[in-house]
Amino acid sequence: MDFLLLLKAAIMGIVEGITEFLPISSTGHLILASELMNFWTKEKSDVFVIAIQMGAIAAVIYEYWTRLWGAATGMFTGEETGRRLGFGLILASLPIILIGLTFGQTVKAMLFNDIAVAIGLIIGGLIIIWIEKHPPQVRAQEVEDLTYKDAIWIGLIQVLSLIPGTSRSGATIIGAMFLGVSRKAATEFSFFLGIPVIIGAGLLDLYQSYDVFQTTQDWTVLSVGIIVSFISALILIRALVAYVAKRDFMIFAWYRIVSGLLILLFAYTGWTLW
Asked: 231, 232, 251: which is closest to 243 by C-alpha?
């Protein structure tokens, strides 16, 4: 067993858990971390980057089980708030599922690189700054207050997250805020919306690339990444909800812009830190 590889998998899991629900692009950070550590072969690393996101989303299910169960059962019992949230999540998930199934592999082949990540980071950072300086009037304080129309629009905005560096969390949170959803509700809806999308993408990628992982060590490395991402994501979720209750996202906007510019600088000059 290659213990250095397991250590790298654990570090990748920490990166995923910390970045998945922040508006800074988990996929972009995982791609960069993989290149920095020379983690695995590119073929295995690309599958790993997608698959370990299931660990982070499992943390959402664990943390919000009661509300999610209420949404699932509400669709059948007719309980109003549960029914609205349940069907809203389905409607919001359809665009990225349909477009992801059609173009996901093409996007992965063309845009899983540092230049695409850098551009996505910078553009997303500028959008966050704009929305924070021009905040719309809040009309939906809680997740259950979102209308079906809100859900559809957020789902369409989420499609942008297929581009590495854009950030699924960033797109859905900022998109929801633009529609008049409170910062807390936008953040929680982003958590919930990741469940079908991330689990679906992870399982599909594993199915399509099943022959990539051929040994016990391969599956052990993947398992370590998933478990570590679950633990670190659970800690992050609780911290982020407390953070957004009192602060804005400007720090993440500037982080995105500075990170993107540094990536472009190193890419175009050939400089390296490793």
From this structure: 251
Indicate yes or no: pTM above 0.90. Answer: no
The amino acid that residue 47 corresponds to is: V
Q: Taking the domains of the chain in order of start, what are their residue ranges?
A: 3-269
Please write the tens of the pLDDT for every residue from 23-60.
998 888 888 899 889 898 888 998 899 899 999 999 99
CA-CA distances (angstroms) from residue 106 to 103, 197, 203, 207? 5, 17, 18, 17
How far apart (Å, rounded) are the C-alpha atoms in residues 83 and 76?
8
CB atoms within 10 A of CB 6: 16
Local confidence band at 274 (pLDDT 50, 70, 90 cut-offs): very low
User: At 181, is the secondary structure helix, strand, or coil?
Assistant: strand
- Quick check: 259 and 32 in contact, CB under 8 A? no
Residues in the chain: 274
How many angstroms separate the CA atoms of 157 and 142, rounded? 20
